[in-house]
Specification:
34% helix; alpha/beta; 17% strand; ten-stranded mixed β-sheet
Length: 382
Amino acid sequence: MNRDLDAMSRRELLRRGGRAATAAGAAAALFSAGVPLGARAQENAAPADLPAATIPESLKGSGEVRVCSWGGAFQAAQREAYFKPFQELSGIEVIEAEGPDVARVKAMVDTGNVEWDVAEMISPDVLNLADEGDYWEPLDYGLFDTANIPEQHRGELYVDMLPYGQVLAYRTDAFPEAPRGWVDFWDTERFPGARTMIGGTGGVSPFLEAALIADGVARDEVYPIDIDRAFASLTRIRDDVVEFWEAGAQPAQMLTDNEAVLAVAWNGRIAAIQDEGVPAEVQWNEGMLDTDVWAIPKGADNAENAQKFAAFITLPASQARLSMLIPYGYVNSRATELIPAERLAILPTAPEILAQMFVRDPLWWVENVEAVNERWNEWVLE
């Protein structure tokens, strides 16, 4: 266990931050992070068209910060909402990388060659690696807008930063009626065609929850996951899955290229291709709400700048800017004030959407991810 945190169990670490939840009301005055989004932002204008923002002196500096995210349309939105404003306002250069992977973080720290200063991860991966040793820097919440970031979003070793929906997406020109959930995704007679699903490598985990729902389990009863039953369900659909993806851009591209007509995807990726005219739609019913986190590998060369970066992107204006560019949710409750009602209504944290979904249980994944990974590695070779 991390020697600085050896008194805490993983369960306690998780209790202190990381359960996906809607950003809910906090109270104090707006942190001096920036200005409200202007009228053009309410029409999804680029952040460059917004009035100039300001940041506290504590987040300014020099040098660089190496940020690893997931690429594609999502990272393009982060570039406009986070990377460019932070670089311009803080004086710290942002150097981008793609493809965060907890195994790579372990190798980097073990060899003393840490290539990333901050990486977008999932909380179970962070906590499981922390269980093996001293692999992460604790977050310095003295730099953060903690008055408006609920405690459940603040972990000792990571900070939540992106509530999103892992959903069923489909081409609207492929079927006379829309698939309504995972039973339909598994129904290859009524909904024929190639599928693509999230896999179990490259820092992502197979969607066992969807496999159980497709097998008749109610969405509010998927935990604890019956791993054997879930993989048996995956076996039934396997021949129709043309690719098990490990990068979020892949299912969106496959729908665009008509290489797949049904996909497990992250909702913001589908919004991006819809804007490009691709006949694609999201089915929110039985989708899963999850959240990514920022974490800082131990021994990062620019750890201080990484702390400042993480604090900046969780400020209200930063979070709102991303939600205006790509329809993911936010963890800073004051972002609500900066986003117009029509935009709020299509975010995964909107009440009417959230009511159709279930929330991923990161505690179950913390305790079972190794068993799932072992089973996945066996299953793909069967």
